[in-house]
Structure formats: C-alpha cells, structure tokens
Write a structure and sequence with these properties.
By secondary structure, this protein is mainly alpha-helical. It folds into two domains: 5-178 and 299-328, Rossmann fold (3-Layer(aba) Sandwich); 197-294, Orthogonal Bundle (Tyrosyl-Transfer RNA Synthetase). Helix content is 54%, strand content 7%. The chain is built from 13 helices and five strands. α8 (150-167) links the parallel β4 (142-144) and β5. The structure holds tryptophanyl-5'AMP (TYM). Residues 7-11, 19-20, 23-24, 42, 45, 131, 134-135, 143, 145-146, 148-149, 152, 183-185, 194-195 line the site of tryptophanyl-5'AMP.
Length: 334
C-alpha cells in the first residue's frame, strides 16, 4: 500500500511554544513512519509582517534544529526551508490568478491580524494562497494542523477544486487533519485566548520549547484557573484554565479523559494539578532541549541536513510546477 502524503508547515517567527508542539509537531513526529512526509519552515510566510532580518535568519535555523530535536527523522521526513524551494513563490503567483479576492478578505486570521496593524502588506492578505501553494505542490492528502489553521486548509481545497475545474485534474484535494486533543492549547495567563507565538515573550503566557525547568514550573504555578477545586474536564468557559491544564496533561501522557481525571481524583486543589502538569511538561521537553543544544553546536551538519531536505523537496515541487505552468498555457522552457 502506498503511504499517504503529508504536508505541514510552521513559521519561524518568535518562539515555538507548547501549543505548536502539542497541536502539530508532536503528531508529525509520532506518525512519520506511517506516512510520506514534507515539513516546511515557512520563512516567506513570516515576512508578511515586519521582521528584523538577522533575528529571522537566526530563528529559522534555530527552529529547524528544534524540529529535528523534537524527533523529525531525516530518513522518514523531508524537512526544508520554504525559500530554498522557489517553486512555492512561483506557484503562488499562478494560484493568485485563480483566487477571488473575496475569498481572502473573508479569512478570520487576516481580519484579526490586519485589525492590529497600522499598515497591512499585500503579503498578509495573500498569505493563504502561499499556504495553498505549499500544500498543493506536493499533492498532499493530509495536512496536520491545529484548529486555527483549519480555515486556511479549507481555502487550499477550494483553490485546488477551482483550478481543477478550470484547467482539468491537476491537484489532489487535501484534508485538514486536526486531532481531538491539543488542537487548541490556550494561554496560561488567559485561558480565553489561544497560546500564540506573538505573545510568547509575555511572562506567563506560554511555555516555550527551550524554557528551563524552573521557568516552566513558574509559568504553571501562575496559570490562571478559577476559585473552585474540582479537577475535571469541562467546557464551561469559567473552567477553561483547569480544562487547558488537563488537556496538556492528556496529550503528553497519551491517557484517556477518565484516566486523567482518575489521576487527579485525590488532588488537593489546583496546586497539585499545576505541579503535576509542570512535571510532565518538563520531562517531555528536557530531551528535546538537550538534543537541540547538541545540534546547534554543529552548524555545518545542520546545513547539510537542510540542503538534503531542499533537494528532496525540489524533486517533487519542480515537476509539479511545470505541470501547473503547462496547464495555464505558459510556454515551458525547452
Ligand atoms: P504557525 O507557525 O502559526 O503554527 C504551527 C502549527 O502550530 C499550530 N498551533 C497550535 N496548535 C494548538 N494550540 C495552539 N495554541 C496553537 N498555535 C499554533 C498551528 O495550527 C500550526 O499547525 N500558516 C501556518 C504555517 C503554514 C502551513 C502551511 C501549515 C504555512 N504553510 C502549509 C500547514 C500547511 C502557521 O502560521 O502556523
């Protein structure tokens, strides 16, 4: 049986946090043996809002090391930097020309982000078309993401369908794959909002992948809960803080909801819960941080891994781009 093809991406902006890990990366790692995988550090997406060039360069390298450290295996997954495969930007132009503007103006993430900026770049509006290019160039069947990216993957489906309708069967229609647990990890300091990279520098908002154990412990100790003491899963917004802590514990331990609640049946209030969740998070992240430190000591080895990833990605993306160019009527270079 041929393996299903998977594509997913992550932005090298700010610090990767527990939400990115539990909502996406941990599953990429766990399922990599069952699938044919392409994972992309999407530096071009990051440019849609202003970036410090040197910081972006450093964060891009650091994130690739972190993804290998989290368990992506270069023999099972192709990990590469988006800008190393120029087909992504070229495909984006071709898809721009079949994507109605209204589809992009409706995207909730665009509306949220645009509302917070004084000046909005064209790239920010076009962001989901670049994301569609990422996915469609690889004929990916599955796109494992957190809940917040669902609308963008659905847009990629719409674009693929429209293109296939206009020019004949060209693209596989991708499916968003969103796990039941961990799809929306909430901020520790405000469980009404999702944990986000842009706020990850704010004290107590997030656990960042490279935080030291003492920092992680402090962040959980300070986590916002409520005035009750029953440790149970709940969809009551007033209990969102406790629910979030239980969800984090559930994804990391891989236990079922009942089993998780049983673990805390004798907890003395939320203090015990926070302490125990901090412990499992610290133990999950410790080996990742250690492997990251080793990888960052050998930049040449990291460059070799990235060069290999880009070459493997180009081998798929370039012929696909040629097919798309041919479909729309471009004269292919002889
Ligand atoms: P990004 O970099 O914001 O996030 C990377 C992944 O982490 C997930 N995620 C979360 N999951 C659970 N809880 C949270 N609080 C949380 N915050 C983030 C995201 O859903 C995502 O899966 N546009 C994408 C990157 C991208 C992409 C792609 C993804 C570009 N091209 C093609 C899939 C396929 C983004 O900005 O993700």
């Amino acid at each position: 049986m041929t393996k299903k093809r998977v594509f997913s991406g992550i932005q090298p902006s700010g610090n990767m946090h527990l939400g990115n890990y539990l909502g996406a990366v941990k599953r990429w790692v766990e399922r990599q043996a069952e699938k044919e995988n392409f994972f992309c550090v999407v530096d071009l997406h990051t440019l849609t809002v202003p970036q410090d060039p040197e910081a972006l360069r450093q964060e891009t390298r650091s994130l690739t090391a972190l993804l290998f450290a989290a368990g992506l295996d270069p023999d099972k997954s192709i990990l590469f930097i988006q800008s190393h495969v120029s087909a992504h930007a070229e495909c984006c132009w071709l898809l721009n020309c079949v994507t109605p503007l209204g589809w992009l103006e409706r995207m909730t993430q665009y509306k949220d982000k645009a509302g917070k900026q004084e000046s909005v770049s064209t790239g920010l509006l076009d962001y989901p078309v670049l994301m569609a290019s990422d996915i469609l160039l690889y004929d990916a069947h599955e796109v494992p993401v957190g809940e917040d990216q669902k609308q963008h993957v659905e847009l990629a489906r719409d674009i693929a369908q429209r293109f296939n309708h206009l020019f004949g069967e060209t693209f596989v229609i991708p499916e968003p794959v969103i796990s039941e647990a961990g799809a929306r990890v909430m901020a520790l300091n405000d469980p009404a909002v999702k944990m986000s990279k842009s706020e990850a520098h704010v004290r107590g908002h997030a656990v960042r992948m490279l935080d030291e154990p003492a920092e992680i412990e402090r962040a959980f100790k300070r986590a916002v809960t409520d005035s009750g003491k029953e440790v149970r899963f709940s969809d009551d917004p007033a209990k969102a803080g406790v629910n979030n802590l239980l969800e984090i514990y559930r994804v990391i331990t891989g236990k079922g909801k009942e089993e998780v609640e049983a673990d805390f049946a004798h907890a003395r209030g939320y203090g015990d819960l926070k302490k125990r969740v901090a412990e499992v998070v610290i133990e999950e992240l410790r080996p990742i941080r250690e492997r990251y430190n080793v990888l960052m000591q050998d930049p040449a080895a990291l460059d070799r891994l990235l060069a290999r990833g880009a070459e493997q990605a180009r081998a798929v993306a370039e012929p696909k781009l040629r097919e798309i160019q041919g479909r729309v009527g471009l004269v292919l270079p002889g």
